[in-house]
Amino acid sequence: RNFSIIEIGFTTTVIPKALANLALGKKTISLMGCLTQSFLYFMLGTTEFLLLAIMSFDRYVAICKPLHYVAIMNSQVCSLLAITAWIGGAVLTLSPTLVYFQMPFCGSNIINHFFCDSTPMIELKCGNTKVLECMILISAVFTLLGSLAITAVSYINIITAVVKIPAVAGRQKAFSTCASHLTVVSIMYGSCIFMYLTQTNRLDLSKVVSILNTVVSPLLNPFIYSVRNTQFQEALRESIKWSIVISKH
């Protein structure tokens, strides 16, 4: 539920305004609207990475400690972890946003992007922006690499445990449990590490990768997580069958 809420909010923060600008040809946004969009975008994105790390830990417990799963991942622990992810996302995003808000503008009000991303917004500021850039980098490194480290450690332990399972069917079942999560993790981490942890000024390429995060990934995630669901598979087969029937007529 938390992951679904984040995905809906993540997309809603950027896409409606971008579509409105394309439809109306009026590519403008207020200062407060831009700051709000930027804060929500990065807060929800940070929360999503923390939640993905928590989900990897959940899979580690399910596969490596199945008999203790109910005791370890009880409802209280799950609620606490989810709240921690939301609070962590807000705290890690709030400090750079407050520093940005206090810095003066240089006069230009043109953002070279389809939403209020950090890099083109920093270019509008006067004076020394090194402190702000450093804060953003530290927040990105802590969020991306910190949560990635938790995910990596969890899956190293999972793979080690799965390899020891003697039955082939048991190994396949264990790996299929993690397949959807690993796919989402690969898409999210790969695109964001490319954008925010590599020194590049190729804004056009950054825009393309941003579309992957804001449009493609949220669109694919429901299918990725539902592909193993029996009802989803049956509905997909029925849809394909009806499409073939309609195309013949």
TrEMBL record:
The keyword Cell membrane applies. GO terms for molecular function: G protein-coupled receptor activity; olfactory receptor activity. It comes from the Eukaryota. InterPro entries: GPCR_Rhodpsn, GPCR_Rhodpsn_7TM, Olfact_rcpt, Olfact_rcpt_6C-like. It holds the Pfam family 7tm_4. It is found in: Cell membrane. Keywords: Cell membrane, G-protein coupled receptor, Glycoprotein, Membrane, Olfaction, Receptor, Sensory transduction, Transducer, Transmembrane, Transmembrane helix. Residues 1-225 form the G-protein coupled receptors family 1 profile domain. The chain crosses the membrane at residues 39-57, 69-92, 136-162, 174-197. GO terms for cellular component: plasma membrane. Its main location: membrane. Belongs to the G-protein coupled receptor 1 family. This is Olfactory receptor.
